Amino acid sequence: MAKDLRLEVVTPDRLVLSQEVEYVGAPGIEGEFGIMPNHIPFLSALGVGSLYYKLDGKYYYVFVAGGFAEVSSNKVTILAEIAEKAEDIDLERARRAEQRARERMQKAEDNIAQARAQAALQRAMQRMTCRSTASSAGTCSL
Ligand code: ATP
Questions:
Q1: Is 23 contained in some domain?
Q2: Protein residue with least CA distance to atom 30, ligand 1
Q3: Are residues 105 and 122 both part of a single domain?
Q4: How many beta carbons lie within 10 A of that of residue 43, not counting itself?
Q5: Neighbours of 81 (CB within 10 A)
Q6: Distance from C-alpha of 34 to C-alpha of 113, rounded to nearest angstrom
Q7: Residue 142: inside a domain, yes or no?
Q8: Distance 15 CA to ligand 1 centre (A)
Q9: Span 11-32, pLDDT tens digits
Q10: What CATH code is carried by the domain that includes residue 13?
Q11: CB-based burial of residue 25 (10 Å sphere; 0-12 exposed, 13-18 middle, 19+ buried)?
């Protein structure tokens, strides 16, 4: 299939991915959205979860947290606050972060501490989900 859609994922400190793809699915703050070639210009804020793209019949996954997605002229630019390809996610680190976040949630003395711990828990769990989804898709080992 013609790959006439370019996907770029960048964070403030690095280029995570630049790739010709067939399809992109992304976690918008109001739900997942999908981009095929020839999509109209589009802008959305990103939530926390798995971005994925299709290439030669396979699905590849990237964890993203916060930022924006822009679509213009068959280019999808993901300006993410945080992004990691599934194969770069350190599962043990995510498990430790999950544990710490759960402990912090129990000890939180105000709403801000509670919200921070909740956000850390969400990142940890979404990292683990991203990696296991990629593993099920056969594009990353667990
Ligand atoms: P931790 O407490 O383990 O640092 P965190 O959720 O607080 O987790 P973030 O603030 O989301 O960490 O990310 C800080 C930096 O560390 C980012 O560059 C991010 O890509 C990287 N990072 C965090 N957790 C992981 C992980 N499990 N695997 C790979 N990179 C990670």
A1: yes
A2: 89
A3: yes
A4: 10
A5: 13
A6: 34
A7: no
A8: 16
A9: 999 999 999 999 999 999 999 9
A10: 2.60.15.10
A11: middle
Pocket lining: 130 vs ligand 1, CB cutoff 6 Å: no
Residue 39 lies in a domain: yes
Domain count, the chain: 2
**Statement to judge: residues 78 and 19 lie in one domain:** yes
Residue minimizing CA distance to atom 15 of ligand 1: 82
Compute, in angstroms, the gap from residue 4 CA to the centroid of ligand 1: 32
What is the tens place of the pLDDT at every residue in 33-86? 999 999 999 999 999 999 999 999 999 999 999 999 999 999 999 999 999 999
State the Cα–Cα distance between residues 7 and 83, nearest whole angstrom. Answer: 14
User: What are the φ and ψ backbone dihedral angles of 78, each rounded to 5 degrees?
Assistant: -105, 110
Using a 6 Å cutoff on CB, does residue 89 contact ligand 1? Answer: yes
- Tell me the C-alpha distance between 27 and 124, whole Å: 16
Q: Which domain holds residue 108?
A: 90-137
Residue range 74-89, pLDDT digits in tens: 999 999 999 999 999 9
pLDDT above 70: residue 1? no
Q: Does residue 97 carry a pLDDT above 60?
A: yes
Separation CA 131–CA 126 (nearest Å): 9
